[in-house]
Amino acid sequence: MPAGSEQLTQARREEIVDACARLYETMPFGKITLGAIGAQTSFTRTSIYNYFCTKEEIFLALLEREYAAWTKDVLSLAAHPVAREAFPAAFAALLEERGCMLKLLSMNLYDLEAGSRTENLVAFKRVYGASMQAVERCLAAHFALSGERVQRFLYAFYPFLFGVYPYTAVTEKQRRAMEIAGVAYRSCTVSELTRAFIEDLIAGFGA
What is the pTM of this model? Predict the structure, then answer.
């Protein structure tokens, strides 16, 4: 780690992650290199190695940041509960701004974890775990649930997150291929897809 204040180190890390996020908006994971990320920062590519050893570690930090932002929103909903019937839409809306998180989950999670040092993976898993705790708090604020029912919700909802992006971000090429193949496709947003899923999950919850 380079010499300097903790604030400077964090600022440099954030600049690298910001650069990675910008590139990921228009480029696929496989085409993004450390050189391309470095070109988007105010320092040299070699300086990146003072903060991250691989591009996977940078992307994992980006995913960690996305989870942290989503967790903050979930905790806000837990602190300000809505009516029972409004919960699916309110909870689903929290994912609408997390397109980057959903994209990384659906396409690159295994690569990111495999290409990161253990300490980076542990830091991510802590934030991931905090998100689960936030969802538990949100459920507790809206429903009277047993521990088992909360776990059933979590183990249905978190795997569901892996499939949201491909169903809501279909390219024109993919649409055309499905049309030729005779596969029906109905366009839907992240909120719409998630709301329907949450409604089914909570259908059996007691009042």
Answer: 0.93
Q: Which two tokens stand for residue 79?
A: 């602190």
Distance CA 176, CA 99 (A): 23
Q: What is the mean pLDDT of residues 97-121?
A: 95
Q: Which CATH class is domain 1-52?
A: mainly alpha
Which residue, among 104, 18, 97, 96, has the nearest Cα to 60 in the 3D structure?
104
Q: How far apart are CA 41 and CA 18, in angstroms?
A: 9
Residue ranges covered by each domain of the chain: 1-52, 55-202
CATH label, 55-202, candidates 3.30.70.260, 1.10.1060.10, 3.40.190.10, 1.10.357.10: 1.10.357.10
Task: Output the pLDDT for position 5.
Answer: 86
